[in-house]
Design goal:
Elements: E1 3-5, E2 17-21, H1 26-31, H2 42-50, H3 56-65, E3 68-72, E4 74-78, E5 93-94, H4 97-103, E6 109-113, H5 115-124, H6 127-130, E7 135-139, H7 151-169
Parallel strand pairs: 2-3, 2-6, 6-7
Antiparallel strand pairs: 1-4, 4-5
Length: 175
């Protein structure tokens, strides 16, 4: 079976929002870029909300400038294909969120890009790792496989959640 390996986090110490996907799909792994599938709405949503655009490296820097971190729940797993439903949970290796959150103490919002990311986080990450001062937002997947909601609906949901995260950013430190 084919194993998928995730990417390191994109984050600075001053990050306030952490966006979590499940695990990179085949196109992302081949390109070595988060959300590389041309029909994935992630970068279009970031452009609409934060005016993030340009080459991949430029987009990452712009995320960082907006105090947004990007990562996945899983560091690796057997995954034959790119659908979240094909992730083999028995082979799943979870990223080290205790260390990440300890190094990024200003995180106020963890936003999940899709149901699978949220489900895996709940299953594999202890609630005490996150702490009470961090809000969790469950967002519609930006994947083209999630076609039940049009781009406009995804954009509204993401805008609402990330604006709430920006509000939380102005309310003191996490610990």
């Amino acid at each position: 079976m084919q194993s998928a390996k995730g990417f390191p986090p994109v984050a600075r110490a001053d990050a306030r929002i952490l966006i979590l996907g499940s695990l990179p799909g085949q196109r992302s792994i081949a390109a070595q870029q988060y959300y590389a599938h041309p029909r994935n709405a992630f970068w279009s949503i970031m452009q609409e909300l934060f005016e993030i655009h340009g080459a991949y490296e430029d987009r990452l820097l712009q995320l960082l400038d907006n105090k947004i971190a990007l990562w996945d729940v899983l560091g690796s797993s057997v995954r034959p294909g790119s659908l979240d439903s094909s992730i083999d949970l028995d082979s799943a290796r979870v990223n080290d969120f205790a260390a990440f959150l300890d190094a990024h103490r200003d995180i106020r919002l963890i936003a999940f890009n899709g149901k699978k990311a949220a489900q895996m986080f709940r299953r594999f990450v202890a609630s005490d790792v996150v702490g009470r001062e961090v809000e969790l937002a469950f967002l519609p997947s930006t994947s083209p496989a999630y076609a039940a909601m049009p781009f406009s609906g995804k954009l509204v949901a993401w805008r609402d959640a990330l604006q709430a995260g920006e509000h939380a950013m102005s309310n003191g430190s996490r610990r």
